[in-house]
Specification:
DNA-binding; 9 helices; homodimer; mainly alpha
DNA sequence: GTCTATAAGTCGATAGAC
DNA sequence: GTCTATCGACTTATAGAC
């Protein structure tokens, strides 16, 4: 797992970084190749089209998501709090891949839209296994999504008005968890 | 106000529609001109650059927002419920402009990021004038943003899992409004 | 496997006729 | 005010040398 990164891994990593930090428009194959330290032709040997590059990012998301679901299931505070808390975190593998695929989806990439739907549905399912009230679970899910949507704004990485007083916000989530 | 639409208005309307329905990448000047029924040169007479086209969309947002703030202030159910309810609505002027500017912001357009910040701040201010608990107000705001972020997915205009049972979700908002 | 060179198309913007 | 024609830069993808 910690073997020297293959060229393919370096390219995907560069592509994901470009998507997160510079936006979808800036994440061209040429810029990705330069950031990965290879030439355009070298990149195209590993990923014959831009579509395959996007597929690589989606596969990375699924892999990170699978690992995170284990953590979310067994979180001491419960899945709901874990979910909202991690919605404001950045830097982890899952966050990087999620934001990268979100950028692709926002740009109109259909497979990315479908992949995000799948991931979010599995989050909602897990929260609903903890929070019996269906609509309270949805409200909690939406708070997490709202937080993520805010941090996903280009330029304003986590500099939002929320997030700072996260613990206070989590108390509101607790109120939703405790049935009416 | 209901005079025959000028070419300028037709162009802005076409541009906003392209942004909403096809995404930022597809909203090229050529495609916008075609949808507005003019040539590329004709478009460039009214908007000498793409940046000016984006400014037109932002101005449309501010104009619609100003009118909506009056409705939100005087809504019978109160600003908070009004806000969450209208987060799932599509087709109105405000929603169209907001989504269009959101697409620009997600693509990295800084003036759009700033414009959205202003609009959202004014919403939060109004909600906080009704909901005294600061963090309950933030939670309500995030629910509305989460709903909007969901409907803003290209292709899946309002076909999300929420929104259908909006009245049930609004009961959760009511719970947040009534202090703990 | 990785490179250079280049084809083929698209985008924003300019120039000038009408 | 609106059009056609075109430029230059950029982007994806191909071809072929090493």
């Amino acid at each position: 797992m910690s073997r020297p990164p293959s060229a393919k891994e370096k390219i995907i990593d560069a592509y994901v970084s470009m998507l997160c930090n510079e936006g979808e428009r800036a994440a061209t194959m040429e810029a990705t190749a330069a950031k990965a330290g290879v030439s355009k032709g070298g990149l195209l040997y590993h990923f014959a089209s831009k579509e395959l590059l996007a597929q690589g990012a989606i596969e990375g998301l699924f892999k990170s998501h699978e690992e995170d679901m284990e953590l979310m299931s067994s979180a001491p505070e419960g899945p709901a709090i874990y979910f909202v808390r991690t919605s404001t975190m950045i830097g982890g593998d899952l966050d990087r891949y999620f934001l990268a695929v979100l950028r692709l989806a926002q740009g109109g990439h259909e497979p990315s839209v479908i992949a995000l739907d799948q991931v979010q549905q599995s989050w909602l399912d897990l929260i609903r296994s903890e929070v019996s009230d269906k609509y309270a679970a949805e409200a909690i899910m939406l708070i997490g999504e709202g937080l993520y949507y805010q941090t996903s704004m280009p330029g304003s990485w986590s500099t939002g008005t929320f997030g700072k007083d996260l613990e206070h916000l989590l108390k509101q989530v607790q109120r939703l968890k405790n049935g009416s």
